[in-house]
Amino acid sequence: MVEFNDPGIGPVRHTTSGTEFGNFFLNLNAYEGGDCPEYAMGGLKMALQASPHNSIIMVLTDASAKDYNDAILINEIKSLISVTQSQVIFMVTGLCSDTSDPAFTIFREIARLSFGHVYQLNLASLGSAFRYVGSVIARPAKSSLRLFSGDYESGSHSDSFAVPEKLTDLIMTTEGSISSLKVAGPDTRPVALRTVVSEKWGSMYRLRSPKKGSWKIDVTGEGPHSVRVEGLKVPSTALTTDCSKCHPNATCEDYDGTKICTCKEGFFGNGIRCSDEDECAYSWLNKCAEGTCINTIGSYTCSCSSGYIANEDHICVPIDYCAKPSTNKCHEYATCTHTGSGYTCACSSGFKGDGFDCKYSKCTDIASLDFVLKCNENEMKASFPACQLKHFGYAVNGVQLAGTRCTGVEDALGLVSVTSPLKEGECGNTVVNNGTHTTYRNRLFVAPNSEVVDATSLVFPVVKRFSCTYINKESA
Questions:
Q1: SS3 category, 418
Q2: Which residues partner with 292 through β-bridges?
Q3: pLDDT tens-digit readout, 451-463
Q4: Rounded mean pLDDT, 46-61
Q5: SS3 label, residue 327
Q6: pLDDT at position 176 over 80
Q7: Are the CB atoms for 212 and 132 separated by under 8 Å?
Q8: What percent of the chain has a predicted confidence (pLDDT) above 90?
Q9: Using an 8 Å Cβ cutoff, are 362 and 347 in contact?
Q10: Strand bridging mode 415-421 / 379-385
Q11: Beta partners for 70?
Q12: Quick one: which of 116, 218, 401, 440 could link to 111 by a disulfide (CB 3.0–4.6 Å)?
């Protein structure tokens, strides 16, 4: 491990212990921060000089390279890469300007020369990034062939590469925003890639027993993105003749008459021996920044602090109490406002109350008959205010939808409401689906009160057309 700061670089620390290597990070002391950029190239040169040939070097930085324009230094780095054949992977959690700045593009240049990548990620993703690097280095030394390297800008691209000899695996790594990646073998048939790591910043795929010959790759991406393909000459995990010798937390696959044992996700080892990876041992192995990490067999969970909830990526995020009605106590005719640590409720226009209890209030100085519509998750609710119906001489019990069996009921809020499920034909609903959204349409009718003397002067019936539109689940 090599530290690089401004202006200091070094020292170089060596160890064969994973625990000691982890402690190197724990013992780092950051002070007088805010410098941007940093001497990343100077640190990389020192690492290349101190590492064996064919090493994998990870550069972890939150800034661009201050020494990008030191021509002598850059040429020395390029020479070291050529001689040592080391692979450089940049993991960048911050920028000093933008991705077109030469202080950042030097990372892409070095990565391209070394068969590496530049991964732009946030601190919460460091755990998956370290596990990615662990997957890269979990192979015997000098056991791979570099088969293909492609660096692209936005768009769709096609390339080919050769598998020159018998290989146990193809390892394909990607960087950037890639929306489509397709690979076809010598027989031109598409092949299925096994996902090892899949993140927004990059992915790794594996293909067992690739056939010799010419292969084709099609990739579509946005912004700068890259693809690297390596071939493994020997399996990166244990070989055996009997799957029963694989660890219980390992998978067993057939390869050329033998069996390959591979530890499952969340475990590390050679497949014969697999140990649980303690993601809680170091903060960069988990995403529990706002909570407490609890290690489990093969994974971990986050016990979040008050006001936070764990999402599908285990990250503790502030609870959005207004995201759905079940997470707040606001009245159905109130507006919920998220405040960061909680929420507030305010009655909607035409209603009065404290936001938790709201009643219809426009029953004086009535100029017209108001219409109230609620597009709920599972139903539509159309209403007329009872006081206004009475004011204009309409029947409180004469409210209905196009489907005459769906009639209105006066509730405690002062509304005469009719509800309809989100289903075509129910209560007279009609449905329009444009592929991304579905719209439900209906009509609300109200008849005059026959007991009112001048009811004949009223419009019969009153008709209010309404609709509710929802995004389709597939589009969401």
A1: strand
A2: 303
A3: 554 444 555 578 8
A4: 92
A5: helix
A6: yes
A7: no
A8: 39
A9: no
A10: antiparallel
A11: none
A12: 116
CA distances from residue 192 to 177, 206, 208, 300, 476 in whole angstroms, order as listed: 20, 9, 10, 29, 26
> Beta partners for 310?
316
Helix axes 40-50, 102-113, angle to 10 degrees: 20
**In sequence order, what DSSP letters do the residues of 121-163 get, joined into one string?**
--GGGHHHHHHHHHHHH-S-TT-EEEEEEEEE-SEEEEEEEEE
Question: For position 357, which CATH number holds?
Answer: 2.10.25.10
Joined together, the tokens standing for residue 191 give: 């092949």
Contact 443, 431 (CB under 8 A): no
Render pLDDT for 182-233 as a digit per residue (tens, 0 to 9). Answer: 999 999 999 998 887 788 888 889 888 899 999 999 999 999 999 999 998 8
Whether 294 contacts 301, CB under 8 Å? yes
Is the separation of the CB atoms in 447 and 458 below 8 Å?
A: no
pTM of the model: 0.58
pLDDT over 80 (residue 148):
yes
The number of angstroms, rounded, from the C-alpha of 104 to the middle of its chain's C-alpha atoms is 24
Q: Do the Cβ atoms of 360 and 411 come closer than 8 Å? A: no
CB 291 within 8 A of CB 310: yes
78 close to 113: Cβ distance less than 8 angstroms? yes
Domain for residue 163, yes or no?
no
From 57, 92, 120, the end of a domain falls on 120
Query: For the residues 28-48, what does the mean pLDDT come to?
Result: 81
Among 149, 144, 162, 146, residue whose Cα is nearest residue 212: 162
The radius of gyration computed from the CA coordinates of the chain, to the nearest angstrom, equals 32
Residues 464, 421: Cα–Cα separation, whole Å: 18
| pLDDT tens digits, one per residue of 356-382 | 999 888 887 778 888 899 999 899 999
Q: Which residues pair with 98 in a beta bridge?
A: none
Tell me phi and psi for residue 416, to 5 degrees: -105, 110
What pLDDT was estimated at residue 124?
67
- pLDDT, tens digit, 9 for 90 and up, residues 407-433: 999 988 889 999 999 999 999 999 999
Do 21 and 5 belong to one domain? yes
Domain count, the chain: 4
Report how far apart, in Å, the C-alpha atoms of 367 and of each of 103, 108, 362, 363, 453 are.
67, 68, 10, 10, 21
- Of the CA atoms within 13 Å of residue 62, those in its CB half-sphere come to 9
Domain housing 292: 283-318
For residue 356, which of 346, 365, 366 has the smallest C-alpha distance? 346
